[in-house]
Sequence to fold (193 residues):
Amino acid sequence: MYRIIISTVFLLIACLSVNAQSLSIGPMIGANSSSISETTEGERLTGLSAGIFANYSVNEKIGLNVKALFSQMGIALTNSEESLRLNYIQIPLTGVYFFGQTGDKFRPKVFLGPYVGFLMGAKDNDIDVKNRYKSLDFGAQLGLGFNYSLKESLWLNVDAGYTAGLANVSDLRPDGKNNAISLNVGLSFPIGR
Fold:
């Protein structure tokens, strides 16, 4: 299943690169503040988000964005040092609407789309509990941000988003779904210019 999703992402990037003038790629890093729904004894848990992304501009206002991110999710227990950490490879595919005009240095944007996440590890206070959690997560992501031209071939990308899981993370938590607020920063480099 992992190979199919990863192959699909790379195939999508390859298809988009037919018009390489509108494709850019780069690294991205940030943080998540996550929790699991229907958990009454928990607080949000901060974690790392890091990976790569690709932007494709369909036209001046509309674009597509795909990311492959290592994302630390989970929940911290209230009044305790204990936490549940779920590590995923998340692949969101979002439609993007850009404000402003092509050539502007500052381009605000909004985005919306689905994501799929693959569980890479799960720890409950440093005890491996991966077998208690489902290997696949999916849901929706929406957010806003901006792209800022640092120089002709280099853009700063800033994304603030909300991720809402639609799948239960475990059969032990029948209504427990991932949710997170994230802030990510990346640098994009155009392909084929």
